[in-house]
């Protein structure tokens, strides 16, 4: 990971940070998921990262939908039923 990526990943409000190839229509190659209770909190953290890194060219994309995470359950009755029907 780049030095900038390592710096960004070091902030407490950042849960994901990764690099991608750029595209002729999309110049950004470093992405991070930043969490905050409000837009102001997120934007404050982004400003802090910008100040510490010297990066002024960035774009904030906000989630428009939240997906509920479901804990994976192994060895359920449904698994055994599926196995009886398809795996034998």
Indicate how many domains the architecture comprises. 1
Low-confidence stretches: none
Major β-sheet strand ordering: 1-2
* Portion in beta strands: 5-15%
Describe the model.
- The chain has helices spanning 3-9, 39-53, 77-87; strands at 14-19, 30-34.
- It is of the alpha+beta class.
- The chain has a single domain (3-87), classed as 2-Layer Sandwich (Alpha-Beta Plaits), CATH 3.30.70.3460.
- The mean pLDDT is 89.
Short description:
By secondary structure, the chain is an alpha+beta fold.
Keywords:
2 strands; elongated; Alpha-Beta Plaits; two-stranded antiparallel ribbon; alpha+beta; about 90 residues
Detail the topology: elements first, then pairings.
Layout: H1 3-9, E1 14-19, E2 30-34, H2 39-53, H3 77-87
Antiparallel strand pairs: 1-2
């Amino acid at each position: 990971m780049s030095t900038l990526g390592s710096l960004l990943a070091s902030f407490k409000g950042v849960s994901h940070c990764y690099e991608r190839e750029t595209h002729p229509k999309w110049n950004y190659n470093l992405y991070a998921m930043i969490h905050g209770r409000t837009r102001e909190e997120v934007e404050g953290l982004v400003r802090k990262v910008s100040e510490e890194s010297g990066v002024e060219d960035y774009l904030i994309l906000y989630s428009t939908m939240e997906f509920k995470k479901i804990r994976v359950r192994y060895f359920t009755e449904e698994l055994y039923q599926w196995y009886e029907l398809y795996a034998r």
